[in-house]
């Protein structure tokens, strides 16, 4: 019994919670049973190799949840809970196997869980092209690779992998990147002589390091998770890495959120073998090869402008097929099936030496 008469009665509120939990449990299992019925339809229509994961439907479900949310839980929090419910429902239909750029503890693993939830089977790969190969070979259903960082720019390795791959982009996920200075339990801050991290993480924290650890050696590592693993047993070094690595290796945080730009984020792509129908709010990624002639770039950009299509990114990479030819990677708002997108693709296709649609996919929701 509460002392203060204006406070709710604790035992009574807990009883209310128990009753709600009972209903929630029933409803969640009813929802899961519906997912099993959906699986039956998919198998009947498309066979055992049907695509059980439906990115467009998941994006719609999550958007609806956020739109109708009245609180007190925030839109992000409620969507995260439903993300996990859908993840469990999908696993009941058919567990999905997702290859990601490892090792365990990387931001890519964090992005994979953010996108697919905890019920997906996540497998770390040693390199970006291994993620591509694993999905191409059918050993994994989907792959997750980083594509661009807001402070560091594009990850060219991922772009280059698309040149030799027939895989499609089926989604994107954006992760806020928070970097921490991590040490093992026996490390004394004043004894630190080396700081390990991935080169891009060192670059993202350069100003902070200049101010707090001037003159201390900075050693690039293949990943920040590996940097975290290395400092676990060293008493004179520190690592820069994120939450996942800190938890995985049980490291102490000497300083948190040390990235130089507070809105530091990385965008990851989901790659697979699936063409995704329109979700209502989509993006498309294109790969366009152009001969190196005057006005080549203008020829590609002009149709987007004339048809009023919002181009969200353009990157160029030297083509591997011949000297001085360029490949442009273009992202724009819209889906290949949209009536206003089709004339743009037709015109660019006529002007380019080669054009490949890498995929139309829902804009990242979470
Ligand atoms: O609607 C479907 O196709 C389902 O399989 C159901 C469901 C869900 O739980 O809502 C589960 C997995 C799919 O990726 C999308 C949605």
UniProtKB/TrEMBL annotation:
Residues 97-273 form the Prephenate dehydratase domain. It catalyses: prephenate + H(+) = 3-phenylpyruvate + CO2 + H2O; chorismate = prephenate. One of its GO terms (cellular component) is cytoplasm. Residues 4-97 form the Chorismate mutase domain. This is Bifunctional chorismate mutase/prephenate dehydratase. Its EC number is 4.2.1.51, 5.4.99.5. GO terms for molecular function: chorismate mutase activity; prephenate dehydratase activity. It is found in: Cytoplasm. Catalyzes the Claisen rearrangement of chorismate to prephenate and the decarboxylation/dehydration of prephenate to phenylpyruvate. Transmembrane segments: none annotated. GO terms for biological process: chorismate metabolic process; L-phenylalanine biosynthetic process. It comes from Marinospirillum alkaliphilum DSM 21637. It comes from the Bacteria. Keywords: Amino-acid biosynthesis, Aromatic amino acid biosynthesis, Cytoplasm, Isomerase, Lyase, Multifunctional enzyme, Phenylalanine biosynthesis. Residues 285-362 form the ACT domain. Pathway: Amino-acid biosynthesis; L-phenylalanine biosynthesis; phenylpyruvate from prephenate: step 1/1; Metabolic intermediate biosynthesis; prephenate biosynthesis; prephenate from chorismate: step 1/1. Pfam families: ACT, CM_2, PDT. The keyword Amino-acid biosynthesis applies. The record marks 266 as: Essential for prephenate dehydratase activity.
């Amino acid at each position: 019994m509460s002392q203060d008469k204006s406070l709710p009665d604790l035992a009574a509120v807990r009883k209310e919670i128990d009753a709600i939990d009972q209903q929630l449990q029933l409803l969640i299992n009813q929802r899961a049973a519906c997912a099993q019925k959906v699986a039956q339809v998919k198998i009947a229509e498309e066979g055992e190799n049907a695509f059980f994961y439906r990115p467009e439907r998941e994006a719609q479900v999550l958007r609806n949840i956020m739109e109708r949310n009245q609180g007190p839980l925030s839109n992000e929090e409620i969507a995260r809970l439903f993300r996990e419910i859908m993840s469990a429902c999908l696993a009941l239909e058919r567990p999905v196997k997702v290859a990601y750029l490892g090792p365990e503890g990387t931001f890519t693993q964090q992005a994979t869980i953010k996108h697919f939830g905890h019920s997906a089977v996540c497998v770390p790969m040693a390199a970006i092209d291994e993620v591509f190969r694993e999905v191409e070979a059918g050993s994994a259903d989907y792959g997750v690779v980083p594509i661009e960082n807001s402070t560091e720019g594009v990850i060219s390795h991922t772009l280059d992998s698309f040149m030799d791959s027939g895989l499609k982009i089926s989604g994107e996920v954006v992760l806020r990147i928070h970097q921490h200075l991590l040490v093992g339990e026996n490390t004394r801050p004043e004894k630190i002589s080396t700081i390990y991290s991935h080169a891009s993480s060192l670059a993202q924290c350069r100003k902070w390091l200049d101010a707090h650890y001037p003159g201390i050696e900075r050693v690039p590592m293949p990943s920040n998770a590996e940097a975290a693993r290395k400092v676990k047993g060293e008493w004179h070094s520190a690592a820069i890495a994120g939450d996942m690595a800190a938890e995985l290796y049980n490291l102490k945080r000497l300083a948190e959120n040390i990235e130089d730009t507070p809105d530091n984020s990385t965008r990851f792509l989901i790659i697979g073998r699936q063409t995704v129908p329109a979700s209502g709010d989509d993006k498309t990624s294109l790969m366009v090869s152009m001969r190196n002639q005057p006005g080549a770039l203008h020829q590609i950009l002009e149709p987007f402008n004339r048809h009023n299509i919002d181009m969200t990114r353009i990157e160029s990479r030297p083509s591997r097929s011949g000297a001085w030819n360029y490949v442009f990677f273009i992202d724009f708002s819209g889906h290949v099936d949209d009536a206003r997108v089709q004339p743009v693709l037709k015109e660019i296709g006529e002007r380019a030496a080669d054009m490949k649609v890498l995929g139309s996919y829902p804009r990242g929701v979470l």
